[in-house]
Design brief:
13-stranded mixed beta sheet; 10-stranded antiparallel beta sheet; globular; single chain; isochorismate synthase activity; 421 residues; isomerase; ADC_synthase; binds the ligand C=C(O[C@@H]1C=C(C(=O)O)C=C[C@H]1O)C(=O)O
Amino acid sequence: MTLQLPAMPTLAARTIAVDAPEDLLALIPDGGMAWVRRGDGMIAWGEVARFDSRGSSRIDDAATWWRRLTRHAVVRDDVHVRGSGLVAFGSFSFADASVHGGTLIVPRFILGAREGRGFLTEISDDGAHGHAPDLASALGTTTPAAPLPRLTEEDGDRDAWNAAVESAVARIRAGEVDKVVLARAVGAHADSPVDPRSLMPYLAREYDGCWTFHVDGLVGATPELLARVDHGLVTSRVLAGTIRRTGDETADLARAASLAHSSKDREEHAFAVRSVTQVLASHCASVNVPDEPFVLHLPNVMHLATDITGSLDHAATVLELVRELHPSAAVCGTPTLAAARLIDSLEGLDRGRYAGPVGWIDGAGDGEWCIGLRSAEIDADDPRQVRMFAGCGIVAASEPASEWAESEAKLEPMRHALRLG
Ligand SMILES: C=C(O[C@@H]1C=C(C(=O)O)C=C[C@H]1O)C(=O)O
């Protein structure tokens, strides 16, 4: 049998050096994408190619498409930093069965900043390569972000949450799973469309240790790095185990110490570290896993955190690793399949692309993918509608009231960005 594959466009990418932009997020044209941390990163706009996928092979299919697309691409890159050359941005649903599926988008323009160096990439699909892009004409006549409309938040269903957490604890005690992550969605609506550009400057400023992103209507500032691949080196930041901040420095230091010693949180954390380490070990010649987690301080919460690194022993692309790492125990549970089934039966929610992978990949397969946490999805059909999400790892010792409080703290970045509280 001969399988007829769709013809692929021949892409050409040209990257030139430009002055490093002071504030990338201030320059995004309408509908543009973003991936920014501590002033470094990329904004991207226009669309040269796009791949939409659904179902359990959505990440695999996207990885295959990207491999085929990049094989014949012509890349001329004067800058050679992370993110220069040919790049696609993407985001994928948390669940296999989600109607939201996933997408990889190849933009026409990418403007980036990396350690004081700026770059501009133009990607074309018409065989016209070689000419150097011009920043002023690439940006065109950008309309500024529409001011944020006043939003109204829907009431949360606390009884449903309590019941879900109680059932999860009972199922854990019965030995069905060790840990399950339960999430809830909070809807908000406005009279006029919500422009992601009006949310990101706040997120990037207040949560500068997080990755502020916008890809296809999913916007947020996530602290959790699923996988970065950079010239054979892979890095993952695992978070699990959370405590709220009080705003009082001394009290927060005491809380950080209690988090570091809490057996409930350390157990929850160990599950997540193990799930990531197992995957990386199968691709790496060596993996470095610190013995003890550190406490990551964010403005709203503190997390137990472990940075895992490894050197790849074969040419795996970042998307191949993402496919295997997702869903990690930090957002699904342990064991994975049983936890995913429990989420389906207890949550009553399509998480969409919340808690799914979001990030970018370059022509060599390097890139950076996070877990789409501390995020909101702007409805593609009606951008006046927004859904925020937050979830908590449930273990045998979990209590509904403190998990509710934890989820409230995790909603804070998006609530504040949307001026809801
Ligand atoms: C599920 C979320 O966060 C995850 C769950 C955590 C926990 O349960 O302690 C901590 C960080 C994330 O891995 C979320 O932010 O919605």
